[in-house]
Specification:
- The chain has eight helices and seven strands; from the N terminus they run βαβαβαβαβαβαααβ.
- The protein is α/β, with parallel strands linked by helices and 258 residues long.
- The longest helix has 29 residues.
- The protein has one domain: 3-Layer(aba) Sandwich (Rossmann fold), CATH 3.40.50.720.
- Keywords: Oxidoreductase.
- Belongs to the short-chain dehydrogenases/reductases (SDR) family.
- Its EC number is 1.1.1.127.
Amino acid sequence: MTNSTVPNPFALTNETALITGGGSGLGYGIASCLVKAGAKVVLVGRRESVLSAAAEELGSQASYVTHDITEMERAAELVERSAEAAESSVSILINNAGVHLKKWAVDTSPHEFNTVLQTHVVAAHALTQAVLPGMLERRHGNVLFTASMTSFIGMSQVVAYSAAKSAYVGMVRSLTTEVADKGVRVNAIAPGWIESPMLEQALQGDPDRKARILQRTPMTKFGQQEDVGWAVVYLCSPAAKFLSGVVLPVDGGACVGF
């Protein structure tokens, strides 16, 4: 048996996380838990006022960079600016930013479908591509994607969102086969129904849908943002040093509920 020499295997001291969509919702919840675990965080988003307020609330370990991740040609610039803001290299990338589109498939235009894919999938790939060289050179890093229960189960009126989140599963698996032997781990979390502005938007004016969700969730409640945040801390920590290629549901049992 090998004894670990890490004093606290769940600590993220000396780690710096770039979190897209980090100023609010799940991104902020993830950032809060990472800070509590000892990491520096760089919040990325388009609204400076939101980012500034979030960084101030998180304290001295937090900074922010205003950026639109759909400007894929500027991904490397974002990584550089984030390293400058944190005064340290990015060792954790959280691909969390996204948009929600609630529409029946028959009413979803190709343009709308493509917009969702560009934000979730193509932009996440561009940023991952930009951050990987440094991680590979240092032989240390974690890339994490925020997937969804729609990566596993069918839900109506979210065909574009479901396609994007399902793509993350393939990206995680493929990336793992390329970089796992070079010190970089790639994983994803798949939040179930977590209390957030995006969930409120998805359930707005649809009480029947809310009831169905709770009925199929064995814990019969919505999750909290910190439930997702602590799962991220675990996957990025030394405690999970032998985990790569994992898509971890954080869903109160919904994925296996009946």
